[in-house]
């Protein structure tokens, strides 16, 4: 089996992948109340989601997180692919943080107590951008099994 992840990328991929996979699995069997809450928060930041059914939104979010978590955990998925997906996903999380009232201190990007749980996801953006940047700028073939 040929691995497409660089050895030194594995700890960051495993940490992010395990967290995101767990998050997706925890939403898999969400009840109506949990789905409505997730959908309401997301639609507040991204108004185009208001038209989507809460249960369908939650299923889509769950499946997306499961797929992204698995892509990060499986070293056969190229790091450029996993990094691009993680960067896009985490940019959406940070957009949610920036657009949701009460998440940030007035006139600042610093989080309030309520925003801390989302603001900390900036590390996911850092991991995704690092994977993507390295793969797009370093073609030296230092991959596991290469």
TrEMBL record:
TM region(s), chain numbering: 80-98
Domain of life per record: Bacteria
Alphabetical keyword list: Membrane, Transmembrane, Transmembrane helix
Protein name: DoxX protein
Source species of the chain: Thermomonospora echinospora
């Amino acid at each position: 089996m040929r691995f497409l992840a660089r050895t030194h990328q594995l700890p960051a991929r495993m940490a992010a992948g395990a967290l995101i996979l767990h998050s997706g699995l925890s939403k898999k069997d969400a009840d109506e109340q949990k789905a409505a809450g997730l959908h309401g928060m997301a639609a507040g930041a991204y108004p185009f989601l208001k038209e989507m059914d809460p249960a369908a939104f939650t299923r889509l979010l769950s499946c997306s997180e499961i797929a992204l978590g698995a892509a990060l955990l499986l070293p056969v998925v190229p790091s450029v692919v996993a990094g691009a997906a993680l960067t896009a996903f985490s940019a959406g999380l940070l957009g949610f943080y920036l657009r949701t009232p009460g998440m940030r201190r007035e006139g600042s990007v610093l989080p309030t107590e309520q925003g801390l749980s989302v603001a900390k996801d900036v590390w996911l953006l850092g991991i995704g951008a690092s994977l993507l940047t390295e793969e797009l700028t370093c073609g030296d073939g230092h991959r596991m099994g290469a």
